[in-house]
Every structure is written in structure tokens, then in C-alpha cells.
Amino acid sequence: MPRQLHLNAFLMNTGHHEASWRLPESDPYAHVSLEHYVDLARVAERGTFDSLFLADGPQLWSNLAQRPAGALEPLTLLTALATATEHIGLIATASTSYNSPYNLARRFASLDIVSGGRAGWNIVTTAGAEAARNFGLDAEPAHAERYARAAEFLDVALKLWDSWEDDAIVGDKAAGVWGDDAKIHPARHQGTYFSVGGALNVPRSPQGYPLLVQAGSSEDGKHFAARYAEAVFTAQQTIEDARAFYADLKARTAAAGRDPGHLKVLPGIVPVIGSTEAEARALEQTLEDHIVYTHGVERLESLLQLPSGTLELDALLPGELPPEDAIEGAKSRYTLVVELARRERLTVRQLIGRLGGGRGHLTLAGTPEQVADAIETWFTQGAADGFNIMPPVLPSGLDAFVDHVVPILRERGLLRSEYGPRTTLRERYGLPRPANQHVSPELTAV
Amino acid sequence: MPRQLHLNAFLMNTGHHEASWRLPESDPYAHVSLEHYVDLARVAERGTFDSLFLADGPQLWSNLAQRPAGALEPLTLLTALATATEHIGLIATASTSYNSPYNLARRFASLDIVSGGRAGWNIVTTAGAEAARNFGLDAEPAHAERYARAAEFLDVALKLWDSWEDDAIVGDKAAGVWGDDAKIHPARHQGTYFSVGGALNVPRSPQGYPLLVQAGSSEDGKHFAARYAEAVFTAQQTIEDARAFYADLKARTAAAGRDPGHLKVLPGIVPVIGSTEAEARALEQTLEDHIVYTHGVERLESLLQLPSGTLELDALLPGELPPEDAIEGAKSRYTLVVELARRERLTVRQLIGRLGGGRGHLTLAGTPEQVADAIETWFTQGAADGFNIMPPVLPSGLDAFVDHVVPILRERGLLRSEYGPRTTLRERYGLPRPANQHVSPELTAV
Predict the structure, then answer these.
(1) Of the candidates A96, A226, A94, A222, the residue with the CA atom closest to the CA atom of residue A155
(2) B239-255 and B219-228 helices cross at what angle (nearest 10)?
(3) Distance, in angstroms, between A75 CA and closest chain B CA?
(4) Which residues of B touch A77 (CB under 8 A)?
(5) What CA–CA distance (Å, rounded) separates A446 from A443?
(6) Which of B13, B67, B134, B166 to substitute to test the interface with A, most A CBs within 10 Å?
(7) What is the pTM assigned to this prediction?
(8) In the CATH hierarchy, which fold is given to the domain comprising A6-271+362-445?
(9) What is the pLDDT of residues B218-245, one digit of tens each?
(10) Where are the domains of chain B?
(11) Has residue B91 got a pLDDT over 90?
């Protein structure tokens, strides 16, 4: 059997295109509709995806006038989806800057238990002052400090997830002994950002701990991914950039003493699918026609950290822009957008049109065969272990991918046709269950 | 129709009796079994209970040798139960000392949305140094400080839950206007314990916010309840004490400017049910026979804040004990236990036996008629608006209550026979949906 693709369905209310909510099919309340997400999860499961994914930030994003804002808290929604599905992995974003390790470690362990080992955590440090101001800070912590906190957060969470050995529960009713206290290991962590004394109050979960996912592509982000991540979501506009990123990340993972095969790289793609190329382009055009460009200008000025009113719709970006290391927010997104505009000499209007679909992710507009070809090329030429599928419109865009692209990928032997027996998310991604740091493998083997 | 009882099923792994896990029927892994809780929730729904409830504390409780420890994180479990039930309310404990208002407000709003308005929050301040040490503190905050933080936490949470007016979403696709920014009200809170700038990132939920429940019976606790609580769980050993508590709390609620009918008082009872009185006593004896008394002595010494080795199994409590105001932990529980021992001149062994069943809650051992009689008496004589039902063994104790006591209560016209149309938890408790603090009722009526 050839190497298998890993597919992740990135679900976001009415779709990834910013104008998707304005289409006739779209429900303006989709973002808080459990039914909407249950339907999507079941479609993704029909497409034998490895996992689905919910992004998140602990603040109210855009102005409400522009587009849907707010969302169900992702771990809550994933728990509900766990009961509505059987096989698909459930990955949620949660912030290391605005959670405490004890609470978050417990919530992921609980999701992993109720889902039978299908939990994944997309670890983010959360850029932006608005989030910071919801948690007692005046401004966002510096990028490097956020990552230092994230690393310590992970160390604490891993201690907590390993604080129960797998066989700590004895259940000896006759002797009146329920558990073995020698198999409980309090965290006893005293660090720069956290001090956590005790053991977690949930036993070790089916996966040991959730699949660890990461999506930052800055230097700090890649360093962090090489050390901890088992899957990486990334935005890449060209196969050359994607191959360079892939090779770089695998090399960093090896350098960190890990098996590079134990980190899966999944670029995001926005498939705009038509039965002909012209039909796909027409759908793309319909979406662009629904963009409110004044809003796009505001958001672009915000991303580029330019004063309001700087950008002109039908002009190129200004020649002088701040360097990436002056950006405190989403560094790699900033560079990707600036490079895209420069490389293709896009006007502000054109750039907004391109970003409207996937916020910097690659749009693949075409027939199912063309989309499948691009996927196969990237996958077989060292650019990807799989893809983060970001339909521009939901549910129709996911339906189209599952009904028309998935069968081609299956026919080419790149994707499973059925799930087979129930298994954990980590097994879906071809990764081993992590050993408990308190248990010596030699002792276990005896 | 006579005034209706409110029943809440307090679910705790294999039951409220500390020895329940040792009975043949009990599953040593019940505490992390979704199936176990789904079955219990469905039994409670068959009994047309108003709600079910999960207690919690963010630390690993007892030594594992003694009895089941750890639990699924309650909001995670309630979310899963929301999808497995239709009518029953879903109440979880969460701590104001060890959560941030933004995250917790959002999680409860999300649960309220996915459950169709069935969420309730049992607000606790969390006693004990072990919890404190899991959140960066060396020792627990003082009792009064915990309650001051709790009050500010509530104020912030209420601002966040009201930060979206109910009709903030417009969904005007033609004009490209999704929401009305004038109907979003950032919290802009700057206080002693919290500073929270923005609006919540979830729309206002079906109930506006979760039913607010409280269970502290100290002076600080009652003051807090009178101001915020819509339901109160309490431990009362005698009808006289219960009536005094009930009258006191209703008066305090009126004094706080609220309708005393808008706070429901639910004493906890541990029903030990047999088809004859002798059968009930035999079940009680079986449970006591399974208590490991050395563990009970340790826990009692801890509650009474006595040095290890002070208590003797077959002697009375020492004559001199610290006064309640010297206790930093669960003040009202402390006084209840001491008074119970003194009033009935119980030896330490007898006291442990009595506490083993319900940790200070009233045990009602008898036939279904006897249990129903006691419920009716308390309910009709000013001691209760309903009850927190704490089966000593689960699932059998809840089955027994629903199969044998519930029909009697229905026959007497004290309890609904069916739910009728789907409704919110707050409506089940006979309470109005709270108005949004940013919306003037006069303006709404125009």
C-alpha cells in the first residue's frame, strides 16, 4: 500500500471564505448551531478524514457588521461532536497564554476519555492585545515570552498527563483498596510561569495525552513544533515554499532528537470545486463579488500594522513595510501576505480577493481531478504528509470535496476507503502512544 | 395543582456512600465512564427530575487506596450528557477561585446553547490548600477573600453574558451586514481581582445565562446566595434546622431586593430504600460493614483540623474543638458534623458510619412510603422547595428512587408525570429568563 494521505477538515461556521455567509445556502446562525457542526462532522467521517479541527481565540474577533463573529467554545463543541461520531479525530485550538495548565490538561484528558482516544490540541500562544485585555493584561506579552510560557505550559501539562500510571486503578473490592498511591506522581512543578503541586484529577487517558498540533510558522513556532508537535498546520502558497518548509521542519525535528516521521506536515488548502474549470472559476467569482472591500482594507491595514487610510484599493502595497521581526502578532502570516502581494504584483483589491478565501492559505480552484492532482503532487514531492482542508463554503464545499475529490484519492490508493476498527487519533496519524515518563520501558517489558 | 417539588439528581461515580464502590454491582471505573453517566441521566429523566448535578474540585481528592478519586471534568461530561438527554437540566460545579471569568462564562454559555437552555452553574469558592497549590498559590486564600473574589467574578460573568443583546445578529445578506455592533457591550471591567475588556465571543444563550446555584451555608455563603443564587443545595440533619435555614435564606433574599420565590432551597437527602424497613436497614448495615474505619478517622481529623491520632474510634469527640470561625475550609460542614455528634452523643465510629452515607446530608432509610412521607413533610412544612437526591449506591439507588418513590410523589400530586414540551432549566425551576442589563424593559415593550 502506498503512503497514505492524512486529511483534516478545518470547520469554520459558513466556510473559510469571508463572504460565504452571504450566499443563499448559508445559515447566519451556523457558528452557534450544534446541528450544523454535527452534519459537517458526519460528512467528514463519510470522507474517512483523519480528523476535524476548530480554530479559536479568546476574544470577539471582527466587527459584527462585517461577518459572523463568536463561536461555541471549541472543547465544548468537540465533546458534543464526540457523541455524534465514531471514528474521526477531534482537534481544538486552546491558548497557552490564557489558560491554566491544570484546568486545560484536565479538559483534554476528559475529552480524550469520552471520545475513546480521539482528542487533539492545536497549541497556540494567541496574538493580539484584545485577548490580553480579557485576561487582566494591558497589552499582549511579547512573542518570545509567549513561546517561553508555551514551552513551560507543555512541560507542566505532560507532567500532569503522566501523573497517573496507566494501571494506577486496582479496584480490589475484597481488600478495600481502590487505587495504588505509588502509581500517582504529583507534578511538583516550580517554574518561571507556573507552579503546580498535585497530580491531575483524571486518570491517564486512552492516548496518554491528546495529539499535539501546532500551527505557528515563525522561528519560535518552528522551534516549538520540532520539540513538541505531532502534526503541523501551515499556510504555503507555492510547492517550492512548502517543500522548503517541510524539509526544514523535519530536519529540526530530527535535530531535536525525535523521529521526523512522528511530525506530520499538513498545509492548508481552500478547494473551490466545479464540474468544469469554468464552473469553479464562476464560484470563485461569486464569492469575490460578495466581499465588502472596505472591510478588507481595514483588516489588511491591521495585519500590516499600518495607520488607517494608508492603503488604496487599486494600488500596490507601499514599497516600505515593517520587517517581520517588528511584528508582534502573527509573524509568519504577515510575511506570507507581503510576499504573495510582491511576487504576483497584486493590487490591494486583488490581494483582498485572494486572502478572502483562505486568509493566506492556497486556493485550488478547479475540477475534482485538478484538485486531486495538486494534492497528489504536493504529497508525493516532499511538500506535505496530508492536508488541512478548508472549504470556502460550508456545508456545500465539504460535500463537494468528499463526494468528488475523495473518490479520486481513494482510487489512486492515497486514502483509506473505510476506517476499519475504531482506533485513536494518534494511531490514525501513524504515531505511537507515548510512554509515561514515570514508567521505565524495560520494567514494563519484564 | 399543588406546589410542585423540584428534584435534582446528585450523581457521583458509584454513589454517595463512601463504601459503595466495594459492592458487587459497582464498576471501579464508573467515575470515568460516559456510559455510566448516560445511563444515570436517562434514569433521572425517566423520573422527570428537574436537573442533575456534578460536584467538583480542581485537585485529586483522597488517597487512591481509600476510594475512587478523580473525575471527568464536569462541563465536559455535561456536554456529552446534553446530547444523550432531552429535558433534564445540567448543573456543574466550577470554582471562582481557580478559573478566569472570560473562559468560564464562555464555557457555560456554550453548554447552554448546545443543550437548548439546560445549563446550571454551582458556584463554589473551593476550600483547601491542595487546590491552591495547583494554581500557583502556596496556601488557600482566606474564606472572606474567596467570597469577595466570587462576588466580583459573578459581576464580570454577568457583564459578559449580557455583552450581546439577544437580537445582535442581523444576518442581512443583501446589505452585507451580519451583526449590529451597537448591540455589543464590552465588559470594560476594572476591579480588585479581575480586569476584562471585551465582549464575550459567544452570543447570549437561551437562558441568558446558566441557572445560578450555590451550596455554601456559612455566613459569607448565605450572603452570597441571597444576592445571586437561584437554587441552593444545603445539608440539614433535622427539619427544625432546615426550616430555620429556609426562612433565613428567604428573608435574606427579600432583604437583598429579590423575590424570595426566585431562590429555591434544596436540602440533600440520601435515600436508602427497601421494600420493608428491615430491608432498608439491612442495606444500610451492608454499606457500613464495608467502611474502612481507619480511613474515616483520618478524614474526620482533617475536617476537624485535629492532629493525626487524636480521635479514638469508640470514644466521643473531644470536648474542646476549634470554633467555626477558626476554620478556613468548609465552615458550615464543620459545624453540622460537630453538632450531629454532640446532639446524638455519637462515638467516632458511629459518626463515621453516619457520615459515610452522605458526608453530613440526611440519610432517610426506609420504605418508599416512608421516604415519600419525609419528603412531603419537609416540603409542605417550610423546610424545602425540593431535594437534592443523593443515592448511596449508583445506579441501583437512583433506580429504586425513580421506580418506587417517584410514583408515590406523582400520585400525591407533588411531582410532574411527564415533562411536556421542551423548556429551559430556569423554566423548570419556575424562574423568569433574566433581562439583559443593557436593555431597558420599557424600551423593549414599545
Answers:
(1) A96
(2) 50
(3) 8
(4) 110, 114
(5) 5
(6) B134
(7) 0.94
(8) TIM Barrel (3.20.20)
(9) 888 999 999 999 999 999 999 999 999 9
(10) 6-271+362-445
(11) yes
